[in-house]
Amino acid sequence: xxxxxHLDVDTGNDDAILLAMMLAAEDVDVVGVSTVCGNSTLTNxxxxxxxxxxxxxxxxxxxxxxxxxxFVREHHDAEWVHGENGIRGDLPDPSTxxxxxxxxxxxxxxxxTYGHRLTIAAVGPLTNIALAIAxxxxxxxxxxxxxxxxxxxxxxxxxxxVAEFNFWGDPEAxxxxxxxxxxxxxxxxxxxxxxxxxxxxDKLRMPRHxxxxxxxxxxxxxxx
Length: 224
Prior knowledge:
GO terms for molecular function: hydrolase activity, hydrolyzing N-glycosyl compounds. The chain is built from eleven helices and six strands.
């Protein structure tokens, strides 16, 4: 059975690769995406997400627009890493728009719809997830698993000597999710060692995945 996955993203180069890989995975059913400010502004991360889905002919995947700023602090982007507007390379203009729900509302609706079949993977600042948990405190118990990409448990940071970018981007939200969300944390200890394996690239060498392979290659090249 394919795993039902909801992605919470701040789509820059890294999350574009994530979307490509998740859409290509045979054992994953991406049932929705929510966007948050992080690598760029909320307007840009939402536009980038819709454009990626357009590129892969997956406009059936609903997208909800989320938090445009952290809980307390000002938003600071990472366009110095990801490029102007948060992503490098040319992407098609999206033909779709976000759903008429906030990310918090949409995530809670996803929980109602899929329940314990749902996995939520948050790979940007955790503002949307913290809001969803505040609105639905039982959320962690109502789903299968909550994964987050953030933090630096046993290594140095990537935005300050001790801080990882996603946690640093909204530390108050990260604190709420870590305390009340019971997530599986994937920090820099893991992500600094992660890469797109040759076996995965070889698996994508088929006509229906050529656009995904090309995007991964383009993003990796332009990020070097």
